[in-house]
């Protein structure tokens, strides 16, 4: 078995909402969860790519519903929750993959002292408020369903290390998810057997450029390595795990430079 092999659990009968489902880790999580029998609700702001991914899942016999939504807008986030409840009748798993560094995505290269305020807002809105909105929208139905559940936040090694002036919003948002949100929702969800954990990657090869980021082990992750950890944490085998942040970063968060 190689580190590029997927692990397998049975998610038959479980409904999983996955944000950022049009690309990268979210896309692979959706594809894998469908292969493992889950009812998958994929959402993303990129409607066209979202449909392409869903078509691929359906072609392999997977059960998938899609809803295009901007996670910065609470009323759109509610349509994701509604789609899951209307199509599959339950929400068991919420995996928050949508996100990314504002500077890279918005092509901002300013020093922090000149960083556009709209780009700061984008970083916090997408990476912190979005997952908080999803959780706020979905957790009531998870509780009312009475069968427990799992929430995963995608953090980042940058949330532990800091991101310098060029990624301050991203580092701050990710740290908020990895610690404040994860622990708060672990506490809030525990009486209902809803577990909440963060998965915090170092460089992942969803983009080739990530191969240039140094790690102690001298390589970036294959996306399946991150998806395998998400899979395990969502499975019943992880039933004693809640409130924790899991670094999966080849030592990036403890590298001295
Ligand atoms: N790739 C890495 O090296 C790496 C490292 C650490 C953490 N992460 C985190 O893992 C997660 C997934 O990363 P990835 O590399 O797969 O990213 P990706 O760019 O491939 O996918 C992110 C998805 O989020 C969607 N998205 C962006 N803004 C949105 C919005 N407002 N509403 C809804 N959807 C929106 C995008 O359309 C895209 O499909 C992110 O949260 C990222 O911060 C990635």
CATH architecture name: 3-Layer(aba) Sandwich
- The CATH class label is Alpha Beta
Distance between the termini: 32 Å
User: If helices are DSSP runs of H or I spanning 4 or more residues, what is the number of helices?
Assistant: 8
Main sheet attributes: strand count, strand direction, barrel closure = 7 strands, parallel
Number of structural units classed as domains = 1
C-alpha geometry: globular
Helix and strand sequence: EHEHEHEHHEHHEHE
* CATH H-tier superfamily: NAD(P)-binding Rossmann-like Domain
Tell me the radius of gyration. Answer: 17 Å
Describe this structure in words.
44% of the residues lie in helices and 15% in strands. With 257 residues, the chain is an alpha/beta fold. α1 (24-35) links the parallel β1 and β2. It has one domain: 3-Layer(aba) Sandwich (Rossmann fold). The two termini are 32 Å apart. The chain has eight helices and seven strands, in the order βαβαβαβααβααβαβ. It is globular, with a radius of gyration of 17 Å. The model has no long low-confidence stretch (mean pLDDT 98). It has a seven-stranded parallel sheet with strand order 3-2-1-4-5-6-7, sandwiched between helices. The protein has helices at 24-35, 47-59, 74-88, 102-105, 117-145, 157-161, 168-189, 223-234; strands at residues 15-19, 39-44, 63-68, 93-96, 149-154, 194-201, 245-248. Residues 20, 22-26, 44-46, 70-72, 97-100, 126, 154, 156, 201, 203-204, 206, 210 line the site of nicotinamide-adenine-dinucleotide.
List the helices and strands and how they pair.
Blueprint (H helix, E strand, L loop, with lengths): L14 E5 L4 H12 L3 E6 L2 H13 L3 E6 L5 H15 L4 E4 L5 H4 L11 H29 L3 E6 L2 H5 L6 H22 L4 E8 L21 H12 L10 E4 L9
Parallel strand pairs: 1-2, 1-4, 2-3, 4-5, 5-6, 6-7
Helix pairs in contact: 1-2, 1-8, 3-5, 5-7
This protein binds nicotinamide-adenine-dinucleotide (NAD).
Nicotinamide-adenine-dinucleotide binds next to helix 1.
